[in-house]
Design a protein that fits this description.
With 182 residues, this protein is of the alpha/beta class. The protein is built from four helices and six strands, in the order H-E-E-H-E-H-E-E-E-H. It has a six-stranded mixed β-sheet.
Amino acid sequence: MLGVVGAVLVIALAVLVPLAVSASREDEQVAVDSTLDAVEVFEDLPTTHDDGEISYDQSPPVGGPHSSAWLDCGAYDAPVPEENVVHDLEHGTVWITYEPGLDQDEVDALTEVLPQNGILSPYDDLRAPVVVTVWERQLELTGADDPRLEMFIREFGAGETAPEPMASCAGGLSPDSGGTNA
């Protein structure tokens, strides 16, 4: 009888130990995926005004020369002029962009987390389903439910990296002059 109990115990350990190790590794992976380590940093971008069309090295742009006019805060259902939004980024605005055609439930979820000093818009040829940007910082996200979105907003959403962090996107161009407000 003691031999049978011992054999059952050995078999149980042989099954349970690998399961426990696997679960531990999955927890570690979730922890790694829930950091801001993937934030891209771009430094020393110029803050000059240029009212012409501007070509940016990053897509979506993270800063650099920009229009003298900024875009009003809000959620837009059409792409917005980059030159205006870069001026918003200079003011400390959070810009959340998403792939055109993203599920409406995800767009609604993005609208819910959009800070008051934020702009939400679709962006053509986005390299991830959602990208969040502030001046000189950017993060590609897997979707609206990516936990790093709210982490990014907590870390950078108050204009920490912006040249003019106490300014706002409020009072910028109206939706009619730079996209349609959703």
